[in-house]
Design goal:
The structure is a homodimer of 264-residue chains. Chain A is an alpha/beta fold and 264 residues long. Chain A has one domain: 3-Layer(aba) Sandwich (Carbamate kinase), CATH 3.40.1160. Helix content of chain A is 38%, strand content 21%. An eight-stranded mixed β-sheet of chain A has the order 5-8-2-1-11-13-14-12, with helices on both faces.
Chain lengths: 264, 264
């Protein structure tokens, strides 16, 4: 089977033009099949502030009312997605920007209201990822760049977690490709001590994960990211790694600074 | 040869939710190959105002500085493009949103500075339209929805005239399809008297066009639209029509309210 890299680039790197540029340059030069999924960064919060729209977060997730949805769709699917595509094109990588609504490649439904009403937030219909469409693009030599905006069957746009989009796409395509999922962000990997950049854990299996969680060494936003990572491994994704966006090629070549490897 | 409809939907209709909805519903139900190109509408100006960015127009065209470019990319390629795609999906039309940067489907270069510096405005490289990409999507049953944002070879995003994007795509694809170009806007067609909705001209050939221009009956923004229309006919586009967005099906069926037909 052919290899496919599904690479997610996270928030803080998107706000650092130099790091982002280096990352996109290396991504563009990476041969073979690849899909990039990007998050949002601070720009949506900044634009909301300028427009006097209050930003509400619960458990690190954005509550998305109608005005906030518009801001996130504009920033994620408009500005970040298209500047990323244009940059990749200039580096010789034939990229295409997508939201989940485009060709319904990542269909979703509005998250049900329970204790928290997240508003216009999407939960992905993971069994309905449009794998034929992604394959068609990849075989045509095109690199999809996916923004964290989806829609439901009624045509309602929904703000959607980029980590989950990346893992869900990787899972769905693992029947047809040897799929490698890489979460890139502003740290070298999962850290034993979050204030020490050199305390990276090289490998976490599910046993170690439970211990690190119980000791509260792994906490907060890292938990959903790792839950996604383990779920992806179980669903057939060949490798999952969490590492620094500056080290993309090291991660792929499994060299020094290759990030935290998820699994046995 | 198979028939292809390239339909451009203009500014004022985009600001009228009811008309837009009816138009998208009819477009979704239209069988066969189709490409939608949309303009910007008032939302970019409104957002600029809220963000204290001055809107400068010369000859009806927006001067695009860096801040204005960001606003137009967000509004056109983010909000309008994705809400349009999501709506079409909900009506059963498998749409995909594109800027010119995506798969470099509509490549451009920055307009040279002459008497006026339009800023980050794109002139389309008409010989380099990615026709293979459009054909691939169409044959895959997907309807492209194109926003008026392009980029140059250096990865610089550029604000680009939607009328010209529509005519250029129609021209480029007329070798492979019997191409019909339809400009939809908020009037029944080209009017003899702009204050009388029922004064529509049914047909304008190049001879009549020169007379109407010399009599200043056709003026302002209608001139570049009609210049595009005649150029498209000369370049092999089978039919070009200008009509009301509410009358899309009449225009296609050449029934009553079929708009103004361009050519002999």
């Amino acid at each position: 089977m052919k290899e496919l890299y599904v690479i997610k680039i996270g928030g803080n790197i998107l706000d650092d033009a130099g790091s982002l540029d280096k990352f996109l340059y290396e991504l563009a030069k990476l041969p073979g099949y690849k899909i990039l999924v990007h998050g949002g960064g601070k720009m949506a919060t900044e634009l909301s502030t300028k427009l006097n729209i209050e930003t509400k977060m619960v458990e690190g997730r954005r509550i998305t009312d109608e005005k906030t949805l518009k801001v996130t769709a504009m920033v994620y699917a408009g500005w970040i997605n298209k500047t990323t595509v244009a940059k990749l094109q200039s580096y010789g990588c034939n990229a295409i920007g997508l939201s989940g609504a485009d060709a319904m490649c990542v269909p979703a439904k509005k998250r049900p209201v329970t204790e928290v009403d997240f508003g216009f937030v999407g939960d992905i219909l993971s069994k309905h990822i449009n794998t034929a469409f992604f394959q068609n693009l990849l075989e045509f030599g095109i690199t999809p760049v996916v923004a964290p905006i989806t829609c439901d069957a009624k045509g309602q746009l929904l703000n959607t977690n980029a980590d989950t989009i990346a893992s869900t796409i990787a899972e769905a395509l693992s029947e047809d490709y040897q799929t490698h999922l890489i979460y890139c962000f502003e740290q070298n990997g999962v850290l034993l001590n979050r204030s020490k950049a050199d305390s990276m854990i090289e490998r976490i299996d599910s046993f170690k994960y439970e211990i690190l969680k119980s000791e509260k060494i792994i906490a907060d936003g890292m938990i959903p990211k790792l839950d996604n990572a383990f779920k992806a491994r179980e669903a057939g994704v060949k490798t999952v790694t969490i590492g620094h966006a500056n080290n993309l090629l090291n991660i792929i070549k499994k060299q020094a600074n290759a990030g935290t490897y998820i699994g046995n």
